[in-house]
Amino acid sequence: MSVQTPEEFARSRNVEVTNALNVLRPSLGNDAGVALYRLLRLVALEDIMGRGAAGTAYVAGKKLGISLGLKKLEDFLDLCKALKVGIIEVPLLAESHIRVDVYECVTCAGLKTVGRTLCHFEGGLIAGVVESIVKKRTRAHEITCIGGLGDKACGFDLELKPLVQT
Question: Which positions fall inside the 4-vinyl reductase 4VR domain (predicted)?
């Protein structure tokens, strides 16, 4: 019997992306309702963490986006379609700035307007994937929101900067 280092032990307790996507539900199928996701993200997390849930959701999305290890933007668009995150359009793709619009957003489409942006997880996910692909530090800022502000799409402005070399 081998002894695990503390790092190995910690890694063994984490659920990896590929493991999380391994779904086996013969009767119910692979999909869960959008309502369940929203209850977790918009109700439970905000109840527990307050407004700090927004930052946590953004960081979680960004870490996930980076960990996916995608090589092309098309791969991300295909993944969003498969996971039904929303209908993604990229109306602006420049060296230091990208605009991403999400229609039928999983987090907020159909909600009554609440007066603030809501899609922090999606912003982080998009920023993480873009950062991983273009190898530039990326920050997403949600400027439009379907359920939050009553817009047609959840729109994210992405600012790209060179990665700091250590």
Answer: 97-160
Once rounded to an integer, what is the mean pLDDT over residues 8-19? 72
What's the CA gap between 43 and 164, in Å, rounded?
Answer: 37
- The answer to whether 122 and 61 are in contact (CB under 8 A) is yes
Burial class (CB in 10 A: 0-12, 13-18, 19+), 156: buried
DSSP letter at 26 equals T
pTM as predicted: 0.85
Buried b (16+ CB within 10 A) or exposed e, 96-119: eebebbbebbbbbbebeeeeebbb
Give me the phi and psi of 140, to 5 degrees please. Answer: -105, 140
Spell out the domains of the chain, with CATH numbers in brackets: 33-162 (3.30.1380.20)
